[in-house]
Design goal:
Strand order of the largest sheet: 1-4-5-3-2
Order of helices and strands: EHEEEHEH
Oligomer: single chain
Shape: globular
Strand content: 15-25%
Length: about 110
């Protein structure tokens, strides 16, 4: 079942808007750049770079897992870009979910 309160940032102008006017939330696994929006939706973008994860299979696995994690959170009215750090692959999925939920709960505007 799709959640209408959660969308993906697709346009370049949306990404640049978040990058230019953001607040940063960090932990060992994730760096989240977030800013409030007026749409009453959670919009997100994923950044999984080739430098930390050279194989496309690994990058796609991480993106699939993150989409699954995001579908389970309580939507907030924010735009965010999730940057995945290289420590992600060293942890189990359950630990990554815990780390994401900790950092996501810190976001408040």
């Amino acid at each position: 079942m799709k959640n209408n309160q959660i969308c993906i940032l697709k346009k370049n102008k949306d990404f640049t808007s978040v990058i230019q006017n953001h607040q940063v939330f960090n932990n060992v696994i994730f760096k989240i750049k977030a800013k409030p929006n007026t749409l009453n939706k959670l919009r997100y973008g994923l950044a999984v770079n080739k430098k930390n994860f050279p194989k496309a299979v690994t990058r796609n696995l991480i993106k699939r897992q993150l989409r699954q994690i995001i579908q389970k959170v309580q939507p907030k009215s924010i735009d965010m870009i999730i940057v995945v750090k290289s420590n992600y692959i060293n942890n189990k999925y359950i630990h990554n979910v815990k780390f994401f939920n900790e950092i996501y709960n810190l976001i408040s505007f």
